[in-house]
Predict the 3D structure of the following.
Amino acid sequence: MRGILQCARYAFSPNKLKYCGPDKNFQLFSYITENVNDQGLNELLGDFGVMYPYLKLIAEENEIKDPFDEKVVEAYWIGNDLLEGVSLKQFYDQLVNKQELKKRFKAKDLKWIVGKVPIGAKVHHSFHVFNVWNRTGHEAKPHTVETMDKCRISWGKVIEKKKNLLKVKTQEIVYKEGGLKLKDGVIKEVSWRMGDKSFVRDLKKGDLITMHWGWVCEKVNKKQVENLRKYTKWHLKLANMTI
Protein backbone atom coordinates (compact mmCIF):
# COMPACT_ATOMS: atom_id res chain seq x y z
CA MET A 1 0.00 0.00 0.00
CA ARG A 2 2.81 2.41 0.83
CA GLY A 3 4.42 1.88 -2.56
CA ILE A 4 1.36 2.65 -4.67
CA LEU A 5 0.48 5.73 -2.60
CA GLN A 6 4.08 6.92 -2.84
CA CYS A 7 3.86 6.53 -6.61
CA ALA A 8 0.59 8.46 -6.67
CA ARG A 9 2.24 11.39 -4.86
CA TYR A 10 4.83 11.73 -7.62
CA ALA A 11 2.29 11.28 -10.40
CA PHE A 12 -0.15 13.84 -9.01
CA SER A 13 1.29 17.17 -10.12
CA PRO A 14 1.91 16.40 -13.83
CA ASN A 15 -1.53 14.79 -13.88
CA LYS A 16 -3.06 17.94 -12.38
CA LEU A 17 -1.40 19.92 -15.17
CA LYS A 18 -2.84 17.42 -17.69
CA TYR A 19 0.61 16.35 -18.91
CA CYS A 20 0.42 12.65 -17.99
CA GLY A 21 -2.14 10.00 -17.20
CA PRO A 22 -5.95 9.93 -17.34
CA ASP A 23 -8.07 12.98 -16.52
CA LYS A 24 -8.86 11.81 -12.99
CA ASN A 25 -6.92 14.24 -10.84
CA PHE A 26 -9.63 14.69 -8.22
CA GLN A 27 -9.78 10.93 -7.68
CA LEU A 28 -5.99 10.72 -7.48
CA PHE A 29 -5.85 13.50 -4.90
CA SER A 30 -8.56 11.80 -2.85
CA TYR A 31 -6.78 8.44 -2.83
CA ILE A 32 -3.60 10.08 -1.55
CA THR A 33 -5.08 12.37 1.08
CA GLU A 34 -7.50 9.73 2.37
CA ASN A 35 -4.71 7.11 2.41
CA VAL A 36 -6.84 4.61 0.47
CA ASN A 37 -5.76 1.95 -2.01
CA ASP A 38 -8.03 -0.22 -4.13
CA GLN A 39 -8.19 -1.65 -7.65
CA GLY A 40 -9.32 1.73 -8.94
CA LEU A 41 -6.01 3.33 -7.96
CA ASN A 42 -4.09 0.47 -9.60
CA GLU A 43 -6.01 1.01 -12.84
CA LEU A 44 -5.65 4.79 -12.65
CA LEU A 45 -1.86 4.66 -12.29
CA GLY A 46 -1.66 1.84 -14.82
CA ASP A 47 -2.92 4.30 -17.43
CA PHE A 48 0.23 6.46 -17.17
CA GLY A 49 1.77 5.53 -20.51
CA VAL A 50 5.40 6.34 -19.68
CA MET A 51 5.67 5.73 -15.95
CA TYR A 52 3.88 2.40 -15.65
CA PRO A 53 5.87 0.50 -18.32
CA TYR A 54 9.08 1.60 -16.60
CA LEU A 55 7.81 0.37 -13.23
CA LYS A 56 6.88 -2.95 -14.82
CA LEU A 57 10.33 -3.25 -16.37
CA ILE A 58 12.12 -2.61 -13.07
CA ALA A 59 9.87 -5.10 -11.28
CA GLU A 60 10.17 -7.86 -13.89
CA GLU A 61 13.94 -7.54 -14.20
CA ASN A 62 14.29 -7.85 -10.41
CA GLU A 63 11.75 -10.70 -10.13
CA ILE A 64 9.27 -8.61 -8.16
CA LYS A 65 5.60 -9.34 -8.85
CA ASP A 66 4.11 -5.95 -8.02
CA PRO A 67 5.13 -2.92 -10.16
CA PHE A 68 3.98 -0.75 -7.24
CA ASP A 69 6.23 -2.47 -4.72
CA GLU A 70 7.79 0.22 -2.54
CA LYS A 71 11.35 -0.57 -3.67
CA VAL A 72 10.32 -0.46 -7.35
CA VAL A 73 8.59 2.88 -6.96
CA GLU A 74 11.56 4.30 -5.08
CA ALA A 75 13.93 3.02 -7.78
CA TYR A 76 12.12 4.85 -10.57
CA TRP A 77 11.43 8.17 -8.87
CA ILE A 78 14.38 8.47 -6.46
CA GLY A 79 16.86 5.71 -7.28
CA ASN A 80 18.17 2.57 -5.57
CA ASP A 81 20.06 -0.64 -6.35
CA LEU A 82 17.16 -2.20 -8.29
CA LEU A 83 18.18 0.00 -11.23
CA GLU A 84 21.38 -2.01 -11.52
CA GLY A 85 19.31 -5.17 -12.06
CA VAL A 86 17.74 -4.03 -15.35
CA SER A 87 19.48 -5.51 -18.41
CA LEU A 88 20.66 -3.20 -21.19
CA LYS A 89 18.81 -5.30 -23.76
CA GLN A 90 15.46 -4.95 -22.00
CA PHE A 91 15.94 -1.22 -21.40
CA TYR A 92 16.80 -0.73 -25.09
CA ASP A 93 13.70 -2.69 -26.13
CA GLN A 94 11.56 -0.64 -23.76
CA LEU A 95 12.73 2.63 -25.32
CA VAL A 96 12.70 1.64 -28.99
CA ASN A 97 9.65 -0.60 -29.18
CA LYS A 98 7.42 -0.30 -26.12
CA GLN A 99 7.85 3.47 -25.70
CA GLU A 100 7.80 3.65 -29.52
CA LEU A 101 10.65 6.15 -29.73
CA LYS A 102 11.46 4.68 -33.14
CA LYS A 103 8.21 6.16 -34.44
CA ARG A 104 8.62 9.51 -32.72
CA PHE A 105 12.22 10.43 -33.51
CA LYS A 106 14.41 10.67 -36.58
CA ALA A 107 17.19 8.07 -36.84
CA LYS A 108 19.91 10.53 -35.77
CA ASP A 109 17.95 11.69 -32.71
CA LEU A 110 17.00 8.13 -31.77
CA LYS A 111 20.67 7.11 -31.90
CA TRP A 112 21.50 10.00 -29.54
CA ILE A 113 18.93 8.74 -27.01
CA VAL A 114 19.41 4.97 -27.10
CA GLY A 115 23.17 5.34 -27.42
CA LYS A 116 23.14 6.30 -23.75
CA VAL A 117 21.97 2.83 -22.72
CA PRO A 118 25.23 0.88 -23.26
CA ILE A 119 27.25 3.59 -21.49
CA GLY A 120 25.21 3.40 -18.32
CA ALA A 121 21.76 5.00 -18.56
CA LYS A 122 19.35 3.74 -15.92
CA VAL A 123 15.57 3.26 -15.79
CA HIS A 124 15.22 6.39 -13.69
CA HIS A 125 12.82 9.27 -14.17
CA SER A 126 15.71 11.70 -14.67
CA PHE A 127 16.98 9.79 -17.71
CA HIS A 128 13.71 10.33 -19.52
CA VAL A 129 13.51 14.01 -18.49
CA PHE A 130 17.03 14.98 -19.61
CA ASN A 131 17.65 12.60 -22.50
CA VAL A 132 14.27 11.98 -24.13
CA TRP A 133 13.96 15.67 -24.67
CA ASN A 134 10.50 15.64 -26.25
CA ARG A 135 8.02 15.97 -23.40
CA THR A 136 6.00 12.78 -23.17
CA GLY A 137 2.43 12.27 -22.06
CA HIS A 138 -0.27 14.33 -23.75
CA GLU A 139 1.96 17.13 -25.06
CA ALA A 140 4.66 16.18 -27.55
CA LYS A 141 6.60 19.42 -27.10
CA PRO A 142 10.36 19.84 -26.75
CA HIS A 143 11.58 20.34 -23.21
CA THR A 144 13.11 23.66 -22.25
CA VAL A 145 15.64 24.06 -19.43
CA GLU A 146 12.79 25.42 -17.29
CA THR A 147 10.45 22.48 -17.96
CA MET A 148 13.27 19.98 -17.38
CA ASP A 149 13.84 21.58 -14.00
CA LYS A 150 10.16 21.32 -13.12
CA CYS A 151 9.71 17.82 -14.51
CA ARG A 152 12.68 16.19 -12.75
CA ILE A 153 12.29 15.12 -9.13
CA SER A 154 14.05 17.80 -7.09
CA TRP A 155 14.91 17.78 -3.40
CA GLY A 156 15.38 20.41 -0.74
CA LYS A 157 15.36 21.41 2.91
CA VAL A 158 12.40 23.27 4.41
CA ILE A 159 13.47 26.68 5.72
CA GLU A 160 10.03 28.25 6.26
CA LYS A 161 6.48 26.91 6.41
CA LYS A 162 3.53 29.00 5.24
CA LYS A 163 -0.16 28.23 4.90
CA ASN A 164 -0.05 26.65 1.44
CA LEU A 165 3.58 27.22 0.47
CA LEU A 166 6.97 26.08 1.69
CA LYS A 167 10.16 28.05 1.30
CA VAL A 168 12.82 25.51 0.42
CA LYS A 169 16.58 25.55 -0.08
CA THR A 170 17.02 23.48 -3.19
CA GLN A 171 18.75 23.53 -6.57
CA GLU A 172 17.87 24.20 -10.20
CA ILE A 173 18.97 23.12 -13.65
CA VAL A 174 20.79 25.82 -15.62
CA TYR A 175 22.41 25.91 -19.04
CA LYS A 176 25.97 27.13 -18.63
CA GLU A 177 29.18 26.81 -20.63
CA GLY A 178 27.50 24.67 -23.27
CA GLY A 179 25.83 22.14 -20.99
CA LEU A 180 23.17 21.43 -18.39
CA LYS A 181 24.35 21.86 -14.81
CA LEU A 182 22.91 21.57 -11.31
CA LYS A 183 23.08 24.83 -9.38
CA ASP A 184 22.82 24.44 -5.58
CA GLY A 185 21.71 26.88 -2.90
CA VAL A 186 18.60 28.13 -4.69
CA ILE A 187 15.62 29.34 -2.60
CA LYS A 188 12.18 28.48 -4.03
CA GLU A 189 8.58 28.39 -2.89
CA VAL A 190 6.57 25.24 -3.59
CA SER A 191 2.99 24.19 -2.95
CA TRP A 192 2.32 21.62 -0.27
CA ARG A 193 -1.36 21.93 0.58
CA MET A 194 -4.76 22.53 -1.04
CA GLY A 195 -7.37 23.71 1.41
CA ASP A 196 -6.73 21.73 4.58
CA LYS A 197 -5.32 18.66 2.79
CA SER A 198 -1.73 17.74 1.99
CA PHE A 199 0.36 14.69 1.15
CA VAL A 200 2.83 15.28 3.98
CA ARG A 201 1.91 15.78 7.60
CA ASP A 202 3.93 17.28 10.44
CA LEU A 203 6.25 19.20 8.14
CA LYS A 204 8.76 21.32 9.98
CA LYS A 205 11.83 23.43 9.40
CA GLY A 206 14.83 21.30 8.48
CA ASP A 207 12.83 18.44 6.90
CA LEU A 208 14.12 17.01 3.63
CA ILE A 209 11.48 16.77 0.91
CA THR A 210 11.07 15.89 -2.76
CA MET A 211 9.17 17.98 -5.31
CA HIS A 212 7.64 17.44 -8.77
CA TRP A 213 6.26 20.22 -10.96
CA GLY A 214 6.21 22.63 -8.01
CA TRP A 215 4.41 20.29 -5.60
CA VAL A 216 5.76 18.58 -2.48
CA CYS A 217 5.67 14.79 -2.84
CA GLU A 218 7.06 13.35 0.40
CA LYS A 219 9.60 13.58 3.20
CA VAL A 220 12.84 11.71 2.51
CA ASN A 221 16.00 10.77 4.37
CA LYS A 222 19.64 11.64 3.65
CA LYS A 223 20.34 8.36 1.85
CA GLN A 224 17.42 8.94 -0.52
CA VAL A 225 18.67 12.46 -1.23
CA GLU A 226 22.13 11.05 -1.96
CA ASN A 227 20.64 8.56 -4.43
CA LEU A 228 18.47 11.17 -6.10
CA ARG A 229 21.44 13.52 -6.49
CA LYS A 230 23.59 10.67 -7.82
CA TYR A 231 21.18 9.61 -10.58
CA THR A 232 20.19 13.18 -11.43
CA LYS A 233 23.82 14.23 -11.92
CA TRP A 234 24.63 11.07 -13.86
CA HIS A 235 21.81 11.59 -16.34
CA LEU A 236 22.69 15.26 -16.69
CA LYS A 237 26.19 14.10 -17.62
CA LEU A 238 24.74 11.74 -20.24
CA ALA A 239 22.53 14.52 -21.59
CA ASN A 240 25.65 16.64 -22.20
CA MET A 241 27.41 13.88 -24.15
CA THR A 242 27.64 13.72 -27.93
CA ILE A 243 26.88 10.23 -29.26
